[in-house]
Specification:
The protein is 42% helix and 20% strand. The chain has 121 residues and is an alpha/beta fold.
Amino acid sequence: MKQILVVDDSAVIRKIARRILDGMRFETSEAEDGAKALAACAFLMPDAILLDWNMPVMDGFEFLRQLRKLPGGTRPKVVFCTTENDITHIARAMHAGADEYIMKPFDKQILQSKFEEIGLV
């Protein structure tokens, strides 16, 4: 079973994502900010990360930069999930190492489609 880490400061978004991902037969864990997510990845590197952009402590962009420096940190597929729709944000995320980008709100169909595109399902 593939491991997905959901990183978002919103408990509601984490709960929705977990429900969708559990239904897709992923093993799901959560982190509420980039610093906690980085610690989780150092302990057990997931197969994929659903990552919010705007978070306290460490935002998604900085988390991604730090993740890609960790041993094995280039392996997880990273999907940015945010309300930021500016093309510069998208380009910045992809340049930092994101594999895909989705907008909030999202649903099962959107997640499944993006995960298919990056080879997770």
